[in-house]
Amino acid sequence: xxxxxxxxxxxxxEDVRWDAFDPAAVDPTLLAAIKAAAxxxxxxxxxxxxLKRVFRDAGSxxxxxxxxxxxxxxxxxxxxxxxxxxxxxxxxxxxAFARFRKGYSPAHxxxxxxxxxxxxxxxxxxxxxCVVESGTSSYYSAIRDATDEPVLKEIAxxxxxxxxxxxxxxxxxxxxxxxxxxxxxxxxxVAVTRVRESDDDELAYAYxxxxxxxxxxxxxxxxxxTYSRLAAxxxxxIYRRQHIQRLVQMVAKVVGANPHGLLANWGGxxxxxxxxxxxxxxx
Length: 283
Ligand SMILES: [Fe+2]
Ligand SMILES: [Fe+2]
Known about the structure:
By secondary structure, the chain is mainly α. It has a single domain (26-238), classed as Ribonucleotide Reductase, subunit A. It has 12 helices and no strands. The protein has helices at 28-42, 44-54, 60-87, 93-103, 107-110, 122-146, 150-176, 184-197, 201-211, 224-238, 241-255, 262-282. One fe (ii) ion is lined by residues 73, 133, 136, 163, 166. One fe (ii) ion binds at residues 73, 133, 136, 163, 166.
């Protein structure tokens, strides 16, 4: 196994070695998934607004952390979008994003009167965020390890490192809240609820807007089940066992279970079996 390069926080688009791009090494299934991921990442400003509302009285350090986090997520969208535009000149991040924005907005972003977290507390919000960052950290690690295209490998490596730092940031923020500690079961409930939401419209609709050109919308209308399955398909095939174990360990840690204990090992084995079965049925 070769050592992975170490990517530090605060990288810029100009730091990526774009001239190493190899068109022959682009995998079409992965390209479709990257286009969808770019839209979801690029949508970060809405989450920034929402999180700043949830943490409005948490002090300038936390609010500054949220701003920086959002800027990094948006940059992930721009980096993935630029790679996808290079691989497929028909694709435009801005055009696909405009369609995505028009058709998708979760209720908790629209309700301007709502003050607290949709999860019930700031701690619960951070548990949910940690679950998302565990997922993205494993996903981009899997892409980095699955692709032979040098630029995508570099971008995925840089993003995976950012996502892991985001997990640590939200993990620390979780434990800084002057709210009562949550029970193990409550944290597990929030984590499982957030994982289940991964099946929701966001990624499926992003996949649709990113991969069905605007002039084909009428002929190929959006169908949630179909595009949800297509969006999930890549994930099922690129993950390796170690990415899944890492994902489960990160989630175990945030709910307060031993990342190397029985529950995490059992959870990792179970999730791996489920994903292999889904990969086989999606193939
Ligand atoms: Fe990201
Ligand atoms: Fe992140």
